[in-house]
Every structure is written in structure tokens, then in C-alpha cells.
Specification:
binds S-adenosylmethionine; globular; Rossmann fold; alpha/beta
């Protein structure tokens, strides 16, 4: 919530509709927390979330979520069984398959990207420079990307693809990273070039 949903919704508070890429769905906490936070806001939301693990998605119908998601039970059931939920306020699409393939083939543009894949160490292909090139191309000019990763390699990959990098810190959560094509966000900017000069051995992950 603190690392992804709150800064992303604050950044897009003036928009009537937001389009979100949630990498990846997992148990769906980011998607559900977003819907919970937007309840009664009148804002429309479209969320696209790839997820490789079909068995996990099928099991979500029986997963015991925190009480605050009780009002989202119908959404959870629909996503688990049909992978889509549509209402007047929301359109949620769970894409069963590889996130890389989805981002290569979609022409949807996103206001918000939750970069919440497993760590760069365990899932490197969702953190490479080539991956962030594709992500950056799908971000609207004022989009925001949120991630828990504070690794310099990740920040270099973001920087290499035209994104400004910011430190996101606050009380009650570990520091995280925000990225945007906008260079004027109200967060402490990370001087990636300086960090690269100080750490010449660190480079962005690559596909190969
Ligand atoms: C850290 S979890 C995501 C947590 C999720 N954001 C949440 O709020 O519950 C990472 C998820 O990525 C999925 N995954 C791993 N590699 C993937 C890929 N290449 N494409 C799509 N999903 C992938 C895993 O199956 C796992 O469920």
C-alpha cells in the first residue's frame, strides 16, 4: 500500500480515469488495495495484470483475504474464474501468461505501473534494461512507476530508458523507488549518473 498504491493514486488524483499495469498479479494485493482505496472516489479504473501461475489464480477464490477486501469478493471470484471483471467504475483484466509477452504486444498506455515482480535475483527477466524499455514505451508522458527495488542496477535500467529516478521513503516502510518521465516530482531525486561513476562495476541487467 505505502510503496505502490498511495504514491500512485496521489500522483494521479486529478485524473477522472486511471489505467494501471500491475506486474504481476500474484495474490492480487496491489490491485485489490487500489480498488479499496478508490471506493467512493467516483474515479474510473482499468487494471491489466499479467500472471504466469494459472494454478495460483484458480486458487484465489478460496484464499482468505483481509476483511477490508470483503466488499471485493465478487471481483475476486470473477478474476479467479473468468480472469476479468467489468462494472461501471472498473475494468480489471488478468492476463494468464508471460508479462514480457503482454507488454510487447499490448497497445494500452498506462498512467501507473506497479513493478512488483519477484526480486531481480530470482526473476531477472522482469528487471532488465530491455524490459524497462518496453515498459517506458507504454507509460503516458506523466505516468508514475513504483517499485520496492532500490538496487542500483534497477535504477540504472530505469535511467537508461529515459526515466527520472526518485527515492521514496517514509515512516513504517522500507525505502523504495519511484520513476517517471517527469523530472519534477516532489520526491528526492536519485543522481543515477553520479552513483554509476561511484560504482563503475554495477550495470543494468540485460536480457542476455
Ligand atoms: C511478488 S509476486 C506479485 C505480488 C502481487 N503484486 C501482489 O500484490 O500480490 C510475483 C508474481 O509474479 C508471477 N510471475 C513470475 N514471473 C512472471 C512472468 N514472467 N510473467 C507473469 N507473471 C510472472 C509469479 O507467479 C508471482 O505470482
Amino acid at each position: 500500500m505505502c510503496k505502490h498504491v498511495l504514491p500512485a493514486l496521489k500522483h494521479t488524483q486529478d485524473k477522472d480515469e486511471v489505467v494501471i499495469l500491475d506486474i504481476c498479479f500474484g495474490l492480487g494485493f496491489n490491485t485489490l488495495a487500489t480498488l479499496h482505496a478508490l471506493k467512493y472516489s467516483g474515479k474510473k479504473v482499468r487494471i491489466y495484470s499479467p500472471e504466469l501461475d494459472e494454478e495460483l489464480v484458480c486458487s484465489l477464490v478460496n484464499f482468505v483475504y483481509p476483511e477490508e477486501f470483503d466488499s471485493l469478493k465478487q471481483v475476486i471470484i470473477a478474476l479467479s474464474k473468468e480472469h476479468v471483471y467489468v462494472s461501471k467504475e472498473m475494468e480489471i483484466t488478468l492476463i494468464l501468461g508471460d508479462a514480457r509477452e503482454f507488454i510487447r504486444n499490448t497497445d494500452v498506455k498506462f498512467d501507473i505501473v506497479y513493478q512488483d515482480a519477484f526480486s531481480p535475483k530470482s526473476n531477472p527477466l522482469l528487471w532488465t534494461s530491455e524490459y524497462f524499455k518496453d515498459i517506458s514505451a507504454l507509460m503516458t508522458p506523466d505516468a508514475i512507476l513504483t517499485t520496492y527495488s532500490i538496487s542500483l542496477a534497477t535504477r540504472i535500467a530505469l535511467h537508461e530508458n529515459g526515466l527520472h529516478v526518485y527515492l521514496h521513503k517514509g515512516e513504517g516502510f522500507r525505502s523504495a523507488t519511484i520513476a517517471s518521465k517527469l523530472g519534477c516530482l516532489a520526491y528526492e531525486k536519485v543522481d543515477v549518473e553520479h552513483k554509476m561513476r561511484c560504482n563503475p562495476d554495477v550495470t543494468a541487467l540485460k536480457d542476455t
